[in-house]
């Protein structure tokens, strides 16, 4: 495609050579390969195939003028490019037909449960690409749940909401999707069959009717918080409804919890897990299997069952800590190193439970009242730094996972002050492994994920507990107090003063995680000087702050242009627009506009 874009700038000799060589290649390719391309690319490659160089150059120059995708609407939508319907050129009108281009984009912004647990509220954005929705009435939305196994479908209406972030996050500046937002409340009791909960997975899809086109598609995963890890809810004693993302699409799983982990401890060189198994009888055998998330290891620990009650029994399983250690760590006492990703949790293990008489895999769920466990590895299994630990963790879906990693700092409380200060308190259980100098020099680092810029924050220690106070809207730098730039910023614990340590002696920064009991309190917002700071739990339990743009919602997205003026009949010269990064307060509206009827008219609003 790059060669096509620059073809008008090349000399005649190159253009003729390009047409010849490309057609020699296409002679050996599948003839249908061009038909599978999007319409804009299909037209150009068909012109190449027909040897229509002058027409090809004119189409490319037409594209260079920019602007929204030109569309001709009758019974079907066609790409309104030069030579549409011109039989002398030899291209069938079907080559210009638009279909796959008008695909649906839908993503989740938040998922919340009602107080009684019967309503699941989903909010997000859904729009048909290349079709403006700058007014509320321009699209109608609905949410559909389908259970293929049961052959059932549940429909619920969705309210259209104002969501200017949909335009901003679409990574384009031609179309307005400001009214692409939706809110839907799903009555979970409608998933019952004849009044009973039945295990199964329901596909969740958003349907959008916009400008006469109807499209439906699964809902994509959001970036953080409940949009990435929606909360589950118990709807019965041993039954829960779990929103989960499978292959990036939202599903609703009705699940009977048959294995629940109720306790854990380290005994000697073993990790002991105890729990409850729900079944018609006490099994004769059972085993807990741990499998490396990287797929490189697996171990099975036999479960020992004990008496319980009617329809359930207790069990314990012991996992040797050594099986959680990679093979090359056999010489750990000599100070063997580990990959950096394993320090941050890359060395994780998922768990499954297998019992006599049941072929289906059971995934152990950690009981609600059971906290995470952090246990220091025995000396024989430590590295040179001596800070390795085994973590028994409940992930965002409630399932049991085990990590062997470096001890990470855990935030136990975060609080926004009225003056915009952010106080972070937590604990670092390996603080006793720090030298006196490292303990004194340790500090918090706030790092931009986009460009790597860093801001340092001093720490106040009290044994293994720490406290840090920062002001994201006024961070201290050599240039004075300035706010954090727009984008995502991560929190790390740095145990050294890098200016006094040789490069080869530097310790890696440790990611700040969030205590399990604190995760549900996110996100937490603060607004200062017309800029919003959103503290988020990313990847379920990773502390980060998302700094939103200082540009008001009404000033983001496509360039505003009135479509009420007469439309010229001849091609206009290409216009040049200032990039978004060049926005200044003087260019913004004097007062923020309310999300009520949008008065902006967008490019090609009439043609679409």
Record the SSE blueprint.
Elements: H1 2-5, H2 12-27, H3 39-50, H4 53-64, E1 71-73, E2 77-79, E3 104-113, E4 119-128, E5 139-147, E6 152-161, H5 164-169, E7 181-187, E8 200-210, E9 213-218, E10 233-236, E11 239-246, E12 249-256, E13 259-267, E14 270-278, E15 286-292, E16 298-309, E17 312-320, H6 340-343, E18 348-355, E19 365-366, E20 373-376, E21 388-394, E22 400-406, E23 410-416, E24 422-427, H7 436-441, E25 443-448, E26 454-458, E27 460-462, E28 465-470, E29 475-477, E30 480-482, E31 487-494, E32 510-511, E33 513-514, E34 524-528, E35 531-538, E36 542-547
Parallel strand pairs: 13-19, 23-33
Antiparallel strand pairs: 1-2, 3-4, 4-7, 5-6, 5-8, 6-7, 8-9, 8-12, 10-11, 11-12, 13-14, 14-17, 15-16, 15-18, 16-17, 18-22, 20-21, 21-22, 23-24, 24-28, 25-26, 25-31, 27-28, 29-30, 31-32, 31-36, 34-35, 35-36
Please indicate the percent range of residues in DSSP E strands (runs of 2 or more).
35-45%
Q: What is the molecular shape?
A: globular
Mean of residue pLDDT values: 86
User: Mind describing the biggest β-sheet?
Assistant: 10 strands, antiparallel
> Quick one: how many beta strands?
36
Low-confidence stretches: 559-608
Oligomer: single chain
Helicity level, as a percent range? under 10%
N- to C-terminal distance: 26 Å
* Number of distinct helices: 7
Rg of Cα set: 29 Å
